[in-house]
């Protein structure tokens, strides 16, 4: 690790900070300032921590100059102001013409820029540091993109970047710190050990440097956080070591409003756990307090507006796993075998530390009852070593993994249906075992993990699954953290059996599992598409032709007194509504869903098809008034009829468009959406018309039948009765 540091291109140790082992050289060309004060730069923007000057035509200021070896930036960072620790770390930043590092509103980010022939931007986000020293390092290579490491571990990446044309001043100096603004209160930050390598370090070199940077001397410092304490010795039992963390978890409840800020706090808790043994009661108290904090996170009012929800909850689950595994590993060995288990609103959990010889069952199952569980064959456990088992069955976590882009997963079968989103459709269940169980590499061999999960379909998912025009794909998936962030994958898992209500999976590894569902509409073959298209065009064209002849006939014969009545007006309006609807229908096939013309046509189609049904209702009312009960004068009925035929559809369309405009012409065709209930704005009125007209038909038929029967009795004419 020291050799990695010695190979740096530029190194500024800054001032001594307790716990950071310092190397000093004569090459640091920087004037040092006080922590939280920094160096005053003579410009209106005010105070900065560091002023690096301008490195013209160097890899620092212009990444285009970087060769294929790339570049690495490294520093330690923490929030220094204890009084403002609940505020988001706004404004703390490191900025140059080639890159920008900042924390704002609870999110840390690195942005990297190249200019010249390739105007590109790479951006990767991470949880910003809290009041503890956190090591931030990022590498960039033209072929690999941006990689951000936090405390020596790969945290997030942006391998591709995107074209970007507008970023600041290309001649900016390299600055670190915050702008001074009297109207705002910034959380003050501290930086230390700023280093630049004009090459991209390897992951192994990064881990070596981080280990060396925190150093053995860290163990002698009482002021450093537990997150940077490392030791290989057996943990020492301390009943009080975890008490401050449990107290802090309780006191901090309700103090967070931003999901990113609270996730950063929970991650800091996981980093801060001391490497000391804990009793069963302490483990139970810490688990309950931590899961209560997780419950607060799930209940935050504004998390749903946060982009990349699945990514955030993937990080949350990784943090929970880390805390639970730490506690299980450090359970007091004087009390073994030991089991800590319980139920909270977040999850059912179990922490087990036992010797495999005490497992007298053919399988270890978690949870031991219920329809959703993980089962591990006893032959998979190592015979001699103590084993630790962490089990979690989350109650509501699956709701937050919805609308996952299949291209953002490692599920090849799902990626084949690009554009059709994936959602978790079962509980999330997790079991971690150390040492790792001995499982078959081949999914057709044994032993293997058996996972049974009951499906938890939402009403929408259930209706989609039952729709015969859809194909439902169910995947046995897990969160893969091999790249630093949780990505859904199905590698090493196969769905052995199940139906729409449950799934049984076989896997050759352990982690967080869930059943993912993807609904894909069945696509017609080319032959069927041609056949249906031909029927539609021929049928609609014939309908339009006949309706046109009908309207022309009415127009020509309108001078004849025998048809100058209300029946003529009703027939003509009905024919006109159907004619326009058919023309609009054929026109709509020429436009793609989601476009403005398609949306307009969808609204017009809704109106004219509703009008067709409304005029059919008028036909029924008119027949009723002629045969059964005469009501109103000719003029008053005229107004009623036009109000029903054109007014009612207009009112329904206006209400529908104002309340759910996004439901028109968005999915599949230029019509109402079938997904969110908007189609009922057409179906409900149409069903009403059909039911009313059936009632009128029955009533009219009964009257005519009675009259015809009477005529038959009087005249004996069977044809009249028929």
From TrEMBL:
Residues 45-248 form the Pentraxin (PTX) domain. GO terms for biological process: adenylate cyclase-activating G protein-coupled receptor signaling pathway; cell surface receptor signaling pathway; regulation of skeletal muscle contraction. Keywords: Cell membrane, Disulfide bond, Glycoprotein, Membrane, Receptor, Signal, Transmembrane, Transmembrane helix. The keyword Transmembrane helix applies. One of its GO terms (molecular function) is G protein-coupled receptor activity. PROSITE patterns: G_PROTEIN_RECEP_F2_4, GAIN_B, PTX_2. One of its GO terms (cellular component) is plasma membrane. The chain crosses the membrane at residues 535-558, 570-588, 600-618, 639-658, 678-700. Residues 350-523 form the GAIN-B domain. Pfam families: 7tm_2, GPS, Laminin_G_3. It is found in: Cell membrane. Residues 532-722 form the G-protein coupled receptors family 2 profile domain. It is a multi-pass membrane protein. InterPro entries: ConA-like_dom_sf (IPR013320), GAIN_B (IPR057244), GAIN_dom_sf (IPR046338), GPCR_2-like_7TM (IPR017981), GPCR_2_secretin-like (IPR000832), GPS (IPR000203), PTX_dom (IPR001759). Heterodimer of 2 chains generated by proteolytic processing; the large extracellular N-terminal fragment and the membrane-bound C-terminal fragment predominantly remain associated and non-covalently linked. Interacts with ESYT1; interaction takes place in absence of cytosolic calcium and inhibits the G protein-coupled receptor activity of ADGRD1. Belongs to the G-protein coupled receptor 2 family. Adhesion G-protein coupled receptor (ADGR) subfamily. Adhesion G-protein coupled receptor (aGPCR) for androgen hormone 5alpha-dihydrotestosterone (5alpha-DHT), also named 17beta-hydroxy-5alpha-androstan-3-one, the most potent hormone among androgens. Also activated by methenolone drug. Ligand binding causes a conformation change that triggers signaling via guanine nucleotide-binding proteins (G proteins) and modulates the activity of downstream effectors, such as adenylate cyclase. ADGRD1 is coupled to G(s) G proteins and mediates activation of adenylate cyclase activity. This is Adhesion G-protein coupled receptor D1. It comes from Eudyptes filholi.
